[in-house]
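Dear support,

I submitted the protein below through the web form. The confirmation email said the job was done, but the results page showed an empty box. After a refresh the structure appeared. I'm attaching both so you can tell me whether what I see now is the final result or a partial one.
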Amino acid sequence: MRSGARAAIAGALFAAMIGTAGCGGGQDDASGGSGGAGGDDKPSLKSAKTGPPSAAEVKHTSKEFLAAWSAGSTAKAAALTDDSKAATTALSGYRKKAHIDKVALTPGRPSGRTVPFSVNARISYGSRKVPLTYDSSLTVTRDSDSGQAVVDWKPSVVHPKLGTGDTLKTGEADAPPIKAVDREGVELSAADHPTLKTVLAGLRERYGKKAGGTAGVETWIARAKGSKSPDETLKVLSKGTPGTLRTTIDAGLQRTAEQAVSKRSKASVVAVKPSTGEILALANSPANGFNTALQGSYAPGSTMKVITSATLIDKGLAAYGKPHPCPKYFPYGGWKFQNDDKFEIKGGTFEQSFARSCNTAFISQAPKLKDGDLSKEARDIFGIGLNWQTGVPSFDGAVPTESGASKAAALIGQGGVRMNPLNMASVSATASTGVFRQPYLVSPSLDDRTLAKAAGTMKSGTREQLRKLMHLTATSGTAAEAMSGMTGDFGAKTGSAEVDGQKQPNGWFTAYRGDLAAAGVVPEGGHGGDTAGPIVASVLRAG
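What the results page shows now:
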């Protein structure tokens, strides 16, 4: 949860006192003995052992590695790994950059080649002496050249939250802490809103200095450059003074969103204000997992038909109230596409096909569209794929130009099309107003950033038809059950996106009601109307 550098500590914290559970305060021994697999006396290839290490080798290698690490014998510990260079950098950085001066490691019961261990370390920074405890694990493998049993080196050996290129650091925080508040000044804390933890960390990293606070002293994980994850504080040695940062979140709606997704093991939802683009709520389940709401990248399934319909209407290929084919099958580009349960609508209209989510009604128009028509509509009218500046890391959607069967699949939200709930909430917002307004979480006036702007606005006739299509779907189509009892000006679209290897498709739902738009996804949930629909509808009712 902080801002910081990157690089050197990919593995360092665990030395072992296996049996004697010791703690070593020894100095780094970068030029120490090289016993073990990294030594000069490697056996010849002819005599090298092969196959997985034995239980005895796992026990011996892990014990030697942990003991060397604990004692501060960096070179010896690194030589017992399959990447001595990376291990040396990480283990020496562990003491120098993270300021760990003592480490005691206690191994647990091995499970095959993996050995769990607990870490009881001491951070020593100036006059501050602070304990740092956590659990980690290592895996023993066999070196292909020497045949020796060695530790399979990964940054997570040092700390389970370390990834490639991450660094464990102790010092004055790169960013002061923040007190994030909602649009009315209500404080938003990770304790009250666990699903906002990564978002608050990202806000601190970007706006900590601008918010006017003062930095404290912390131990943190500085993420690798280009990482989508924010830095994360592990220990606060001395508190800084937080600055206040106002966000666009509505605390009440945020609680509703969190409660709605908590009913499922995996789910995400986002709500935005169509008239401004402000993000009013975002939530993920599990709360401590990946921020799918803003950074996910999934095929959106039939929710994509909102954009596809706008494309067809603009091209004069479809219109509300006009006849439109919905056959059981439609072949294109060497693929044979079909509808759910192979249904068809004989003599149907375009609005019937939209409300029932007929795939072939859209795919049948692929021969009449240029390869770039869908991607152009998505970008120039709905703002998808532009460089969104939300204030925190986000994925801005992707609708690539495709041809053949992939172009046809894109029309129904498959192929290379990728979205997340933020993108799809914005799609409904644009459909309801006719204007793309880039979603944001922090006012652009704070840092003078430029929000993305679409090249054009939706034709009034297209907007009118889209709203009628979505309203029909919400009252008598696939979204009707979830939107039952909804009042006012509202519309919706469901989606189910097939994914190779999944038994159930990802369920999608996007909708608007008045000046509130929301979208949600339930991975492997099944039909969007049954799974994501109730989540989105509960947010709209609370707005």
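Response: this is the final, complete result; the empty box was a page-load delay. Residues 1-45 have pLDDT under 50 and may be disordered.
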